[in-house]
Amino acid sequence: MSFVNQDELIQSLLDKMHAMFDKAIGPNNRNEYMRQHNVSGIDWHFSLSADDIIEQRVPRAVAGCTGISKVFSKLATEVGLKHVVLTTAREENLRDAEQDRKSGKKERIISGHQIIAVYDENGKLRAFDPGRKELRYIKSEIQVGNIINFHFDGEVVPHRITAILTPQEFAKVNTYKKLRDLYFYGSGDKKQVFKKGKNKLTFWENLQNYFVKQND
Q: What distance in Å separates the CA atoms of residue 189 and residue 192, rounded to the nearest whole number?
C-alpha cells in the first residue's frame, strides 16, 4: 500500500465512521443521553465497546474521544490498516495532580484525549484526531512523554502522550481506572521512555506512589 493510498484509506474510514455518527439516535449530550437511557456512573461510556457504539447508534459526543477512537480502530483493523492508539493526558491536570499529592488532597479526575497514529514511509508514527472529519496529521513527534498541543474551542491545550497501545490493548480500556492508570503509568515497557529524563522519571514515580488505584 502506498502512503498516498494509505491517506485515502484513512479518509474513507473517517467518512464511513462520521456518516454513522451523523445517523446516531438520541441527544448528542452525554448527561442528557444517560438520563434518557437510565444509566449512570463515570464508567458507563468507557464500558462501551466499538460494537456497542455502532449497534446502539450512540452519538459522537456521548461516546467521547475514547469511544470514537475505539470505533475507528475497529474499522481500521477490519481493512488491515496498521495503527496504534495514543492516550494523552492534559498537562495542566497532571501538574495539579502532583500538587494534590504534595498537599495530601484527594485525587482528582484527569482529562485526556485519545487519538490514532499510523506509520509513514520511514516507519515513524504520525498521529491524527479521528474526531475530525478531515484527515490532518499532527506535527508533534509521537513518543511517550512528548507534548501534543490540541486546539479546543480556540484554546491551545497541551497534552502529554502517556501510552502507545495496540488496537487489542485499547479495546480493553473499559473503565475510568484503566484509562487513568494509562495516564499515570503508561503501558508495559513503553513507560520506560520516561526514564530518558531524570525529572520526568521522578515526576511519574511520585505519581505512581500516590495513585495506587483509579481515571477524556
A: 6
